[in-house]
Amino acid sequence: MGETSDQKNQLSNRIRAIWRRQVRPVWQDYQWAVLGGLVIATIILGGAYLALQLFHRQSVTVPGALSSCLAAVKFLATAVTLYATAKALAVIFQRQIQLVGLKLTKNHVVICGLGDKGSLFTKAFYEDGYKVVGIDKDADNSRLEQFRDLGILILTGNATDSEILQKARVQKARYLVAVCGNDGDNAEIAVNASALVAAAETKVLTCLVHITNPHLCNLLKEREIMAQRVDSFRMEFFNVYESGARQLLKEFPGFDESVGNFEPHLLIVGLGAMGKSLTVHAATLWRIALGKSKKKLLITLVDKDADQKKEYLQLQYPQLNDCWDLIPVTLEIDSPQFYQAKFLRDGPGRGLITMVYVCLDEDSRSLAAALVLFQHLRHEEVPIVVQLDHDAGLATLLQGEDSGAGGFANLHSFGLLDRKCKTDLLLYGTHEILARAIHQDYLWSQKNLGLTLESNPSLVTWDELPETLKESNRRQADDIGRKLTMVHCEMEPLMDWDAELFEFTPEEIEILARREHQRWLTEHINEGWTYDPGAKNPDRKTSPLLLDWDELPEDFKRRNRDETRRLPSFLAKAGFQIFRTGPNTKRLGKNGGDEAAAR
Predict the structure, then answer these.
(1) Are 249 and 309 in contact (CB under 8 A)?
(2) In the CATH scheme, what is the homologous superfamily, with its name and number, of domain 97-238?
(3) What's the pLDDT at 180?
(4) Which residues contact 553 (CB under 8 A, 6 or more apart)?
(5) What is the DSSP string of 297-352?
(6) pTM passes above 0.85
(7) What is the mean pLDDT of residues 375-404?
(8) For residue 360, how many C-alpha atoms fall within 13 Å in the half-sphere facing its CB?
(9) Which of 9, 236, 540, 554 has its CA 20 to 30 A from that of 224?
(10) How many degrees, rounded to 5, is the angle at CA 326 between CA 320 and CA 328?
(11) 541-555 exposure pattern, b = at least 16 Cβ within 10 A, e = fewer
């Protein structure tokens, strides 16, 4: 897809977004009033025309007015009739029209599972101007009719079935979002979609798979880069609770980065997916803020299975055992013991609670528990954050006239799904993080060579970068795992904060540089680029660097090696680290390259 096509797609999305967010809602509210007004105007002008006809019989000065009035009546009558007819036909044959249009649709978004998360993602993509196709197996889902009213094509059936994925033209889609209620179903959707697009050469389907279990999601995210195998299929795992915990701590931090002598004591009520993620991310932020300090973050955990879940956390995150001091309080949230809330002040030397997070599985229970704790802590002015699914509904009770001083000033709501089920956050996955890091490293290297925006149009921020170059960076990120396996290395999220930066051997640098150039060369040949000894010409798709590694000029080989040498550094900045898996004995033939060459 060329840059002109990318620009057209982006412009089309922006126009649709303006229509869907601003114009369409107003038009829907007033279209029948406008239509009624036009009918009335037609009747009035028709009456005026009859009156002018009568007047014309007695005068010779009216023909111009009579002709104009007749033209206006004809135009309005035709417009009203055509609009009403088109509207009626669209309502009657909407699904048939959509199915015909689907056969020509490409670069759209397919969303599997239209529950709470899927519905919010559907609405978000729709409002951002994307063409959306929804799949849900529950034909009685009350949300389906609302989406159909918006013109969104909804297919009913099991999204794990390859036939329904084909019907949704997933092989021509840009994004596939799997947010069914079952992790196994989401994984099966991804596997079947991968098989459907395996034959594509330049088209890439990005599949975003929701995994409910945060720990399993993290394990899969560790492997997703290393497991990248099909060039036309990109897999991203995500969990709204894990990313939601990051966002919650950003909006309502339990401590400042400059901790000093302050000794925070966090209380987390409810150790479901969100509560566990909060505990892990709070301890991680504490470790980053304090470095090697032996001071631990005190966290009281209240849950009906608090002892068991504390042990679970310590076993699954052993690297954090030097960072946190977990105090389990095992009791039922609806029990008299919780209402007494003795855990708020029990424990000599523990210190008063300084921050409370309530993360239960139901909004009503979360709010009730938060109000109980608020009554106990209101005089200490301890902030209490209650995690709800949405900012509307029960959350509005905290935002009324009494929410200021003397009311619920210290009680805050955090609508998880409203914040996290958005397109920009969903699409900012592991591959995207790495692709942006690659581009940032490219900007740094090119500016060090003395290049400017005038001499290299690619020296712009990520948001200003054409979609073709963004995709080129993503493809480079996709290949990192495969390259690392060639030198018996892998990558994982950065958790060893004190480890020295990884360094490749000169032999490994040569192998990786050759491999990257071969990947870049193949990518450009598939996209229609050809060799030309002159200057690079993106319009003609010619480049002097479409050569095998051994034929490349030495200065470009050196740049390729320098980029490979910096790989551990920019991966660390993106939150990843490289480690060895075995003796480095594997050797390669012709491969290599850098993003500088790609530009």
Answers:
(1) no
(2) NAD(P)-binding Rossmann-like Domain (3.40.50.720)
(3) 92
(4) none
(5) EEEEEEETTHHHHHHHHHHH-GGGTTTEEEEEEE--TTSHHHHHTGGGT-STTS--
(6) no
(7) 72
(8) 18
(9) 9
(10) 145
(11) ebbbbbbebeebeee
**What is the pLDDT of the chain when averaged over all its residues?**
80
Distance CA 82, CA 166 (A): 35
In sequence order, the β-bridge partners of residue 386 are 358, 413
Q: What number of H helices and E strands is found in the chain?
A: 22, 16
β-partners of residue 384 are: 356, 411
pLDDT (tens digit, 9 = 90+) per residue, 307-344? 999 999 999 888 888 889 999 999 999 999 999 998 88
Q: How many CA atoms lie within 13 A of 188 on its CB side?
A: 11
Determine the CATH number of domain 244-420: 3.40.50.720
> In angstroms, what CA-CA distances link 94 with 152, 154, 251, 545, 552?
10, 11, 43, 51, 57
Predicted confidence (pLDDT) at residue 382 exceeds the cutoff of 50: yes
Instruction: Indicate the Cα dihedral angle 11, 14, 15, 21, nearest 10°.
Output: 180
- Measure the CA angle with vertex 521, ends 519 and 523; round to 5°: 70
Instruction: Report the alpha-carbon distance of residue 327 to residue 347 in Å, rounded.
Output: 10
pLDDT value at 398 more than 50: yes
Contact present, 511 and 588 (Cβ < 8 Å) = yes
pLDDT at 249: 92
**Residue 177 DSSP SS3:** strand
For residue 155, what is the enclosing H or E element?
Answer: strand 153-156
Place of tokens 């002008």: 45
Cβ contact 442:462 at 8 Å: no
* Torsion, Cα of 79, 82, 85, 88 (10° steps): -70
Residue 151 has phi, psi (to 5 degrees) of 90, 10
State the Cα–Cα distance between residues 419 and 434, nearest whole angstrom: 23
Q: Judge contact between 465 and 439, C-beta under 8 A.
A: yes
Do 544 and 597 meet the contact criterion of CB atoms below 8 Å apart? no
For residue 179 the two structure tokens come to 């947010």
